[in-house]
Amino acid sequence: MIKAVLFDLDGTLLNRDASVERFINSQYERLHEWVGHIRKEKYISRFIELDCRGYVWKDKVYQRMVAEFNITGLTWEQLLQDYVNHFKEHCVPFPNLHKMLTTLVNQTIILGIISNGKEQFQMENIITLGIKDYFETILISETEGIKKPDSRIFEKALEQLNVSANECLFVGDHPVNDVKASQNVGMFAAWKKDSQWKDVDTDFIVHDLMEIPIAVESVNKKGSDLAITGIPNRNS
C-alpha cells in the first residue's frame, strides 16, 4: 500500500534542460556588453557542455568559460552570481506538474522531495514552480550534509513522513541516484524516462507525470502484490 510519494527535482519535476537553455540565452543577452565577442550559439553550447546536466557546479563552469573565451570586465564570480540570481526566472515545469500533484493529494498521498544541490537555489526553484505547499518534507543535500544515493537521506525522508519504505514510491530520472538508491532502501521506484539512459531496472517507467497517480492507484488496488505495476515497465 503506497501512502507517500517522494520526488527528485531536476529532470523529474523541473525540466532542467529546457530551463538551462532559457536561462543561458537570457544571460547572453543580459551580459552582451561583456560576452558579445563570443558567438551566441557557442556561448550557449559550451555552457551546456560544461554544466554536464547540473552535475558540475557553476563555479567550475564559469571559470572555464572566462578562461576559454577571454571574457574581461566580468569575473567568473559575477557570472556565477548572475546564475544564482536569475536561474529561477527561467524554470520550466514538466507538463501536468500541478495536475499530478493535486491528483496525488486528492488520493490522500503525502508528498516529499529529496534533491541534491544548494539549499537556497533549489528552494527558490521549487517556490517559482509554485509547488512548495504540496510537500510535507523537502530535503536538500547541502543542508542535510548527505546526498543521494546515500541511503540515510531516503531514510530521513521516510521518518519525517512517518511511512515505511514499502509504503513509498520514489520518482526520479537518475538510474543510480534515484532508482537504485531508493530500491536499496526498500521503496518502489519509478524512473522518469530520460533518453540519456536505457534499460533501467525499475518498478515503473514514467513518460508523463500523470502516469504517477495511475501507478499509485493501481498498486493500492492490488494490495500487497508487488509484481503488479500500474504502468508497464517498457523501454520504448
Helical residue percent band: 40-55%
- List the quaternary state of the chains: single chain
- Provide the residue-averaged pLDDT: 93
Strand order of the largest sheet: 3-2-1-4-5-6
| Number of helices, where a helix is a run of at least 4 consecutive DSSP H or I residues | 11
Assigned CATH architecture of the largest domain: 3-Layer(aba) Sandwich
Q: Determine and state the CATH class of the largest domain.
A: Alpha Beta
Terminal Cα separation, in Å?
Answer: 28 Å
Tell me the β content: 5-15%
Shape: elongated
The helix/strand order is EHHHHHHEHEHHEHEEH
CATH topology name of the largest domain, in short, is Rossmann fold
Number of strands: 6
Q: Report the major sheet.
A: 6 strands, parallel
Short précis:
This protein has 11 helices and 6 strands.
Protein architecture, described:
This protein has 2 domains: 4-15 and 93-222, 3-Layer(aba) Sandwich (Rossmann fold), CATH 3.40.50.1000; 16-90. It is 48% helix and 11% strand. The chain contains 11 helices and 6 strands. A 6-stranded parallel beta sheet has the order 3-2-1-4-5-6, with helices on both faces. Strand 4, helix 10 and strand 5 (188-192) form a beta-alpha-beta unit.
